[in-house]
């Protein structure tokens, strides 16, 4: 696989956003990573190999406080990470792109599609954690944990993936309420395909069903009976690239 050097650009506040970019055919693919993850994860790397093999343009980046970008993770919010994504789209992407969002990245991708409709060709969402700060974190907190968040400003959340514990901050919870989507219909003028594991302890498959109900048009939902949250087995990665192939083969997306 061809290796690229990490590139960076500077935001208006002096923070830097790191990214990796591969040239190729349009529409390009943009990877929106998950909460507390980065652009070198298994799925992001698998997409890079697929992009090299198919000659497709591909862009991946790290949000503020993630991976090779600057900033402290604990200072991040949905607003900040959405702004990072919009800056990436505005600076680095010409014409409509296929947004591929994993977990929190699916929420960011949907918000970005709403904010930049001219930049979206199609959406592929993996274990979409839309509204996760409220529906999947705050709603599951005990009264004692909620009190700790509100009084002390954060709570250290254990992780089952070897990358924690990590902070859930009061700012993250309160800011997330500014961006909730599942309390109204979600209009997206492009094809949408969702991959969701049925053994996912973080984003229950019923949560993905609720998103399908709220989305306009005719989104496709693929439920993977043995699938977990990461969807990173060889079989899952095959489903990911197959879904991309199918989306691009349809030719129903908006071309540049």
Overall mean pLDDT stands at 94
Oligomer: single chain
- Percentage of residues in strands: 15-25%
* Major sheet: arrangement of strands: 1-2-4-3-5-6-9-10
Low-confidence spans:
none
- Global structural class: alpha/beta
Global outline: globular
Total strands: the figure is: 10
- What Rg is obtained from the alpha carbons, in whole angstroms? 17 Å
Number of helices: 8
Distance between the termini: 27 Å
Query: What percentage of residues falls in helices of 4 or more residues?
Result: 25-40%
Largest sheet: 8 strands, mixed
Element order: H for helix, E for strand: EEEHEHEHEHHEEHEHEH
Brief sketch in words of this structure:
The chain has eight helices and ten strands. It is globular.
Explain what you see.
By secondary structure, the chain is of the alpha/beta class. It contains eight helices and ten strands. It has helices at 42-54, 78-92, 104-115, 132-137, 143-152, 170-176, 205-214, 234-250; strands at residues 7-10, 16-22, 25-32, 56-61, 97-102, 120-126, 154-157, 166-169, 192-197, 220-224. The strands form two sheets. Strands 1-2-4-3-5-6-9-10 form an eight-stranded mixed beta sheet, with helices on both faces. It has a two-stranded antiparallel ribbon with strand order 7-8. Strand 9, helix 7 and strand 10 (220-224) form a beta-alpha-beta unit. Helix 2 crosses helix 3 (104-115).
